[in-house]
Amino acid sequence: MRLFTALWPSEAAVADLAAALGGDRRGEWPGGAERSRGFRPIPPRRWHVTLCFHGDDADPDTVVARLRAGVAELHETEPDFALPSLCLAGVGTFRGALWVGVAPENDVGSGGVSPVLRRVALLAGADVRRFRPHVTVARWSGGRVESDRLTDRLNSYVGPAWSAESLDVVASERHSGTLTYRTVYRVPLNPR
């Protein structure tokens, strides 16, 4: 079972971003995406913020136990800890991927990784030196994509604020060639 820990944007945040992108079909995307071999928008139902990949052989019970212990310790050392409201904001590309950033509502314009998001990712087991909170919205495997035209549409995008209530341990599974995500465990961020 391939596991990762994730935060899920709210339905309103997903709907707003989907509208800003102009659709989920390849031909509606800017930047010559339709000419790129293998260009594929990620269905909005799969948009998530990956905090940490745990791998193919990770034991879900071990991952959940570590998350619960981390959340409990966080609340012991900082009783008033709360993850701030988040926004999908900004855009960029990695090799073969278009992503939209994630930032606290009160820190959208900073351009850096919020310390509180870095902390939650560390709690999940991420290598925080490489952590960049984002939602992947499209991938491509070859050909040329005019990434500037893809990102221009979203350069100043800031979506509606949303609250993450839990850290979700998610299984990535393939059934009949279709990738699906299934939440295996939900660890509340506020255990009270």
Describe the structure.
This protein has 192 residues and is an alpha+beta fold. The chain has helices at 11-21, 60-77, 115-124, 147-152; strands spanning 2-7, 40-41, 49-55, 86-94, 97-104, 134-139, 166-175, 178-188. It is globular and about 50 Å long. The mean pLDDT is 85.
The best one-word shape is globular
Report how far the terminal alpha carbons are from each other: 30 Å
Order of helices and strands: EHEEHEEHEHEE
The largest pleated sheet is described as:
4 strands, antiparallel
Portion of residues within helices: 10-25%
Q: Low-confidence parts, pLDDT < 50 over ≥5 residues?
A: none
Average of pLDDT: 85
Spatially, the strands of the biggest sheet line up as 3-1-7-8
Number of helices: 4
Radius of gyration using CA atoms only: 17 Å
User: Class by helix and strand content?
Assistant: alpha+beta
Number of strands: 8
Approximately how much beta-strand content do the residues carry? Answer: 25-35%
Give a quick set of tags describing it.
four-stranded antiparallel sheet, globular, 192 residues, alpha+beta, 4 helices
In a nutshell, what does this entry contain?
This protein is α+β, with helices and mostly antiparallel strands and 192 residues long. 23% of the residues lie in helices and 31% in strands.
